[in-house]
Structure formats: C-alpha cells, structure tokens
C-alpha cells in the first residue's frame, strides 16, 4: 500500500507580486503563477503520479492552482474538498498593505515579529499558532486518515496553512516551523508509513 501525500503552495498571486499582505483576501494568479501551477502538474505527471482525491482552501488562488494542475495531469473532475480550515493566515489590519508601508507605519521590528513569530498576531488577525489551531485538527481528522487508508491525496493551499501540515508531518518545533520557507508551485511529496511517520520526502524541482 502506498500512502502518498503531496503538498503544493499555490502559484504566485497578484498580491505576492505587489508585495502586499494577502491573507483571506481573494486575489487571482499572475501569469507566472499560472505557469507555476501548470509546471507543478507536469512534474507530477512526469512521475506518473495519480490521485484519488484533493483538498484545497476556500480561496480562488489555491483552487485555480489545483484546477490547472489537474488539467495538466489529465485528472479534471477529481473528488475535491474545499474548506476554509486550509485558508491562508488572516493578516487582519495588515491585509492589503504593502509590506514596506507596514514597516514605515509600525516599524521594522514590529512587522518582523508579526510575520515571523509563532504566537504574536497582527491587529485583528491570526498568529501562526492560530492558523495551526484550525489547520492541524483538519489535517488530523480529514486528510491524514485518507492517506493512511492508502488513497493518494493532493493538497493545494497556502504558505502558512501548509506549514501547519508540515509541522505535524515532520514533528517540527515552533522555532523550526517559522523558519521553513515554501516556494510557490513546487510539489512536496511525502510517502508515509502505516504509523503516519515519513518514509520518504522529496521536493519536485526542475
């Protein structure tokens, strides 16, 4: 039995390009983001990977990335679950602001704390710990059982919600997970043992 789980951060969004805090705001992909999504699908197809189901967030940039990947793999119509538990971290009052503008308003150190600490939330928003508090239980109750049953599962979501899944998979500490960078559009392939531990891990790069 192959217990296959693939995680993909959505392709570059319009607000990624503009260096804006995006959070739960619904924005589209750039041309580069579309190309990244299609390339991710081609990489998986080249490895002859097929999937039994997919999970994604309630936000368009993740859903579009998934759709483009499935199109490249010839798996359109795959059973897909969309849930806001996998949404990006909510940046609250920072949403829509340019990151450099935010530094001018609140100072470099404060913005760095909001972005890179584990448990300090921006005004009106979520900390990484808050994001983990909704994404981790969802992974444990909905996604992991599918993988352990032998289904091949694809998850397309966001940098911070995927960090929650990676924290659980790899047993990382809060200090370790805040340092983990996730590139857009690069599939991370996990093969799990029966006890949910990682048997193999690979990032599919060119």
Please tag this protein with its features.
single chain, 206 residues, alpha/beta, Rossmann fold, six-stranded mixed beta sheet, 8 helices
Would you give an account of this structure?
This protein is of the alpha/beta class and 206 residues long. The chain has a single domain, classed as Rossmann fold, CATH 3.40.50.1240. It contains eight helices and six strands. The chain has helices at residues 14-17, 31-46, 60-73, 99-106, 108-116, 128-148, 159-170, 174-177; strands spanning 4-9, 53-56, 80-82, 153-157, 188-192, 198-203. The chain has a six-stranded mixed sheet. A hairpin with a 5-residue loop joins strand 5 (188-192) and strand 6. Helix 2 (31-46) packs across helix 3 (60-73), helix 4 packs across helix 5 (108-116) and helix 6 packs across helix 7 (159-170). It is globular, with a radius of gyration of 17 Å. The model has no long low-confidence stretch (mean pLDDT 96).
**Could you tell me the mean pLDDT?**
96
CATH topology: Rossmann fold
| Main sheet attributes: strand count, strand direction, barrel closure | 6 strands, mixed
Q: What gap, in angstroms, lies between the N and C termini?
A: 28 Å
Please report the first level of CATH classification, the CATH class.
Answer: Alpha Beta
Morphology: globular
Helical percentage: 40-55%
